[in-house]
Amino acid sequence: MPEENIDILINAGWLIPVVPRNTVLRDCSIAIRDGRIIALLPSGEAQQRFSAEQQYDLPDSLLIPGLINAHGHAAMSLLRGYADDQSLHTWLNESIWPVESRWMSEEFVYDGAEIAIAEMLLGGTTCFSDMYFFPDQTARAARSNGIKCQLAFPVLEFPSAWARNADEYIHKGLALRDEFRDDKRISIAFGPHAPYTVNDPALEKIATLAGELDAPIQIHLHESADEVAQSIADHGLRPIERISKLGLLSPLTQCVHMTQLIDSDIALLVESGSHVIHCPESNLKLGNGFCPIDALQKAGINIALGTDGAASNNDLSLLGEARTAALIAKGVSGNPELLPAHEALELATINGARALGIDTDTGSIEVGKAADLVAIDLSGIASQPLYNAFSQLIYTDSASRVSHTWVDGKLRVEDGQLLHTDQSELVKKAQTWQAKIQAER
Ligand SMILES: [Zn+2]
User: How far apart are the CA of 411 and the centre of ligand 1, in A?
Assistant: First the structure.
């Protein structure tokens, strides 16, 4: 009889641990106790060694680490498809900001965040970073749905339903940080929206406070050519030069988008040890240009992956985003060897964990880490034949074949269905909001 008691044993046909790199294991098992991985071993041995309270036999499935969506605006799921095919400037000024200012409320954010979280869990995301008004509501939705998240509380100069000015945004964000100090699944970062929406004094204040508190900063940076040109016209500096001078770049800084880069921009990233969050589908859709993966990789910069909000993507599938990242890297560089499938998966897992400073807890399937895991069913016609599990995972529509998602060893998705949330209720909520918003358009 097996001697060691554990909570969960998962037996899988294929397993990609991400660390070590570019590795596919066959017929192996993960033993979980108290939400953490205590062993990773061949299934034959696992049956001899462990007695599990719950066992999952998934011989036709691939297990991967939970995905980390390193940039988004969850509540914007309520604005999915509200305004498409516009430039960033038009989209923000004429569509998104007006509709947000009309409808922004605690209820809007909570409902939108729940809808986004459901979509993310169903697609294998176990941790996301968010930047939006009423971050306390997104935190509440994350907590009640058992997903991990980094809340980069927004800071802007203009008023919203959440705060009147930069000082109040910061004040409220710091209160949120105190409130969630002991929450293991939720962390708080500073989220200065962008260099063009926050003035120098507030950016300096954020740099000082973040330094004192050892807190991460996430900022939209070099999202468009217009942003760079406007910054040079207004400040005589490129956006990254300006925020560097103001003290915002450090190993805890997460720079989102980073298109339109020149060598000196990349040098600033290298010098500071800051991270890049690549959001290729949002960049493509808004016609903003390309993040130069090749040059960033050569410079040794950590690149994570984000979907951005559903209003500029328009889905929250991180596996789909990894596919786009791989394809666009090849297409733009003319080099098909760039960003192979195993590296695209690193962007969506371990690199995201490094960017958010949680890589000792998650981002790979390793003993001691949290059991943040995703199973993908490879038995269907669109996954066959299976020469290479990485290839199937990244270059086919694998997000639609996610069958199980565990966060800290807790099963959140089983057989492609949310376990703790009524999906039809969420659909009704989305439709109710659409009717209200459309009635006043
Ligand atoms: Zn964004």
Answer: 29
